[in-house]
Amino acid sequence: MGIVKISDAMHENLRVASNALSRSINAQAEHWMRIGMLTELHPDLDHHQICRLLIGAELNGGLDLKQLCLRTEATAGADQ
Asked: Can you tell which superkingdom this protein's organism belongs to (predicted)?
């Protein structure tokens, strides 16, 4: 585990969102990072689809970036 430096304003945003959504500040930050990462990897998916992808990943043992990228490449290759 490492240290991530964020601005005071972002920390306040995290604090407000985490209180509103009954998450710890760290859990809220991790949630936002997952959503952001998946949005960058899958710009064609909307928030609902990304949430479904997260749920599917959790059912399969958790979000593994390497496996997710391999599945994405396989799917893209099948579409061509």
From this structure: Bacteria
Residue 66, domain extent: 8-79
38: in domain: yes
Reported residue count of the chain is 80
Neighbours of 27 (CB within 10 A): 13
pLDDT at residue 41, as a whole number: 87
Hey, is 10 helix, strand or coil? helix
Count CA within 13 A, CB hemisphere, residue 47. 2
For the segment 26-48, what is each residue's pLDDT rounded down to a tens digit? 999 999 998 998 899 889 999 99
How many CA atoms, within 13 angstroms, populate the side-chain half-sphere of residue 23?
A: 15
